Amino acid sequence: MIKRFKLFLLFLLLLFSIAAKRKDSGTIGFYLESAESESQKDTVKVNINSQVHQVLIKPIFSQKDVEGFYPFLTEKGESFGISFKLKKKATTELQTLSTVATGRKIFTVFGNNPMDFVVIDGPISHGYLTCWKGFNEKHIERFKDAGLRLITPKKEGPTIKPPPAIN
Hints:
10 strands, alpha+beta, 4-stranded mixed sheet, Gyrase A, domain 2, 3 helices, 4-stranded antiparallel sheet
């Protein structure tokens, strides 16, 4: 009887570990473009829009650093873009990072899928990281299910226009 109970507990533990791994595959991460001085062992190649980019393996921000999100329909209406509001500590880290990493890119990755990137053009003090395209309604539901707060606009007015595409 005790042997069966131990086997049952082992089986449950295995199921929970598999479920935890699947849950992690639906998380959002933000990765910084590697500098030329970075070691190759600390970087990985990412393919976005048929272009290969070298990024750091470790994300600079992860889903645990995100306080909330604001989805918006892209200009052409083919997908959603999302602005992610970072928590206070991550906002401070982003401001520091964006001051020293001007000209580098921040890549948004959902699970194992690179979505888009933005170029750091100066200090970012507002605490938002925006991915301008690539998300759908299922992604938005997964963020809600993960406990991220849905941010709604406070007033009607002009919408943010994405920057011109980088070729």
